[in-house]
Amino acid sequence: ELSDLQECAGLALGSPTRFGNMAAALKYFLDGTSGEWLSGTLAGKPACVFTSTGSLHGGQETTLLSMMLPLLHHGMLIVGLPYTESALMTTASGGSPYGATHWSGVSGEQALSNDTRTLTIALGKRLAQTARKLHA
User: Fold this and answer.
1) Which of left, alpha, beta for 19 (phi over 0: left; psi -120 to 50: alpha)?
2) CA-CA distance, 40 to 19, in Å (whole number)?
3) Residue 101's pLDDT is what?
4) Contact 23, 16 (CB under 8 A)
5) Which has the closest alpha carbon to 94: 119, 127, 75, 129?
6) How many angstroms separate the CA atoms of 133 and 136, rounded?
7) What would the DSSP string read from start to end of 1-23?
8) CA-based angle 4:47:116, to the nearest 5?
9) What is the pLDDT of residues 32-65, one digit of tens each?
10) Coil, strand or helix: which one is 106?
11) How far apart are CA 38 and CA 40, in angstroms?
């Protein structure tokens, strides 16, 4: 809900991938945040993005980038995954410096890999640590 945006210290935004883009429902929600944009509700708050795809090359990174665009327009501070996270160099199941990703398989049969779990937790920690530092 829009009120959640006012109250959050940071925002983790996720969406399934739809043809290399965020899902239409998320786009619709974000399109309705012009009041928050005008008032600067999200300006200066940290954000991260994550996605899941049915196919390994289903547009994970373009989906993450499509979610970042409105957040940048809101003045949010985007945190990603640095290559100091060694799982970025070894993963065969998803993960990107742009955010956490998961390759679920067409029918959702692919369980979270250890690398995916590690990268997802690292991204959440990075978001929380950034929010705490900004609010100190």
Assistant:
1) left
2) 31
3) 95
4) yes
5) 119
6) 5
7) -HHHHHH-SSEEEEEEEETTEE-
8) 110
9) 999 999 999 999 999 999 999 998 888 999 999 9
10) coil
11) 6
